[in-house]
Amino acid sequence: MEPAKTVAALHDLSGVGRCALTVVIPVISAMGAQVIPAPTAVLSAHTAFSDFASVDLTDYLEQCLDKWCEMGLSFDCIYTGYMASVRQEEIARRFMARQPGARRVVDPVLGDDGRMYRALPREMPEAMRRLCAGADVITPNLTEAALLTGAPLPEPGKGAPGTNETRARYRLSELRALLEGLMALGPKVALVTGVPLEDVHANVWMGEDGGVRVCEYEPVHASYPGTGDLFASVLTGALTRGDSFEEAVGLATRFVRDVMRRTLECGTEPVYGVQLEKSLGALMRS
Ligand code: PXL
After folding, report:
1. What distances in angstroms separate CA 17 from CA 57, 148, 260, 270, 274, one per listed residue?
2. Confidence band, pLDDT 50/70/90 cuts, at residue 159
3. How many CB atoms lie within 10 A of CB 66?
4. What's the N-to-C CA distance of the chain in angstroms?
5. Which of 195, 164, 163 is nearest to 178 (CA)?
6. Is any atom of ligand 1 closer than 6 Å to the C-beta of 228?
C-alpha cells in the first residue's frame, strides 16, 4: 500500500451548517488522502445564519504554517477556501512559495447570489486576486468570478443554484470573456461553478490552451450553502488521487447534484446545508 497523499486545507471551521472544513475533511478523507487542516477562523455557525460567534485565527494560521515548514513537511496539495482577513491571504501565499511541489487549489470564497459575504473585509476580492495568480486551479462561482474580474455581479435571486426559471442566462461568448478575465489573473486553470447557459446548466473551465470546456448537468431546484466547498473538495480529492481534470470535474458535478437531490427529498432547512454524511460512501474506492 502507498502512503496517503497529503492536503493542507486552509479553511474555516464552522460548527453548524455544513461548509468549509466540516465538508473538506470528510470528503477528501473518503477519497483516500489525509487532510491536514489549518483553520482560518472558528465560527459557531456559518455566516448565512443570522447570528454566530466567531474568532479570527490569523495569528495562529501564520504560526501553524511556519511550524509545518520548520518540521520539514511537504504537501501534495494546498487547498485554500474562506480567508477571514487580508493578512491570511499573504500568509497563504508565502506558504505556497515554500511548498513548490504542492498542487495549489484556490477556492476564492467571497460571496454568492450576487452579494459578497458580509463578514468579509471589503479588500478581500483584491487579496484573492493575488492568491489566484499563483494557483493551479481556481473554482469561483459566478458572484466570485465577477468580484475577481470586475464583471457585473449576477442579480441577487437570479443566480441562486437551482432557481433556473428566473435567473439570467449566460451566452457562451459572455462566458468566454469571464473565463479569459479569470485566466488573466494568472492561474493555470479557471473553473466557474453553477453557470446557467442558454439551454443547459454547467460547470465551465478554461486552461492554458484558451479553450472553453463545459460539464453540463440538470439543475436541482434548491439552493444550499456549502455546495461550492463540496464541489471544490471532490475536485481536489479526485485530482490528488490522480484522476484527470475532466474526470475530476465530472465526478464533482455528479456528486454535488446527487447530494442536493437527496437533500431536497429530505426536506431539511436549506441553511443547514446538504445531507453529506449518507452519501460519502459513494466517494470511496475499494
Ligand atoms: O461555503 C462558503 C462559506 C465558508 N465559510 C463560511 C461561510 C461560507 C458561506 O456562507 O459563511 C464561514
Report:
1. 20, 26, 14, 9, 8
2. very low
3. 14
4. 13
5. 195
6. yes
What the block records as the C-alpha cell of 55 is 474568532
- Residue 135 has a pLDDT of 98
Size of the chain in residues: 286
- How far is Cα 26 from Cα 36, in angstroms, rounded to an integer? 12
CA of 13 to the centre of ligand 1 (A): 9
* Cβ of residue 230 lying under 6 Å from some atom of ligand 1: no
* Gap between the Cα atoms of 167 and 180, Å rounded: 23
* Ligand 1 close to Cβ of residue 12 (< 6 A): yes
- Measured over the CA atoms of residue 10, residue 12, residue 18 and residue 22, the dihedral's sign is positive
Burial 263-280 (b: 16+ CB within 10 A, else e): bbeeeeebbbbbbbeebe
- pLDDT per residue over 200-209, tens digit each? 899 999 999 9
- Helices 86-97 and 58-70: angle between axes, nearest 10 degrees: 10
